[in-house]
Amino acid sequence: MINPFSRTFNVGELETFQFLSQVMLFERLKNMEMARFLTALHQRKYTRDEVVFFSGDPSQALYIVKSGRINLTIDIKDNFEIINEVNKGEAFGENTLLENVTRIYTAIVASEEAELLVIPHFAIQEVFDSYPKIKAKMMTSLAEFYNQNNRRLFKSYKTSFGFFNLQEMFDRNKEETR
């Protein structure tokens, strides 16, 4: 039986849900749950070499690539080393799901143009405060994302053994003094 009080969505909203459902952080959410983000979701266009955010900036939004490519870089002295390329259907700035954190990498547009969907941090936190199940699902996806990154980091470390000290990653005292 169809619930006469259930919300129906227009074609544009359904297309947005279809797109978001392919993004790892949203893949566990139902349409009604994704709809909680619609009013805060906005599109922004960028051009080649434009910086989306710098390492050390406050984490103020989550970005999802609708078109184009974004290079995630780490600053090593005066150079930017590319650590990942983010493409259509992928998110970056994921640590904005956490509270009171700063960016750990710089995001720079690598393609001629890039169109990004942007969800501000405050809007994410409002949804999380009002809908703990949505928060639980998205935080599970975030934990899986970080677990995959740790696996890749450890694999990379094994193949380049001796070039860096992995113990520094776990040394909390050094992190606080940087």
TrEMBL record:
Pfam families listed in its UniProt record: cNMP_binding
CDD domains from the UniProt entry: CAP_ED (cd00038)
Cyclic nucleotide-binding domain location: 25-145
Residues that span the membrane, as ranges: none
Name of this protein: Cyclic nucleotide-binding domain-containing protein
Source organism of this protein record: Cecembia rubra
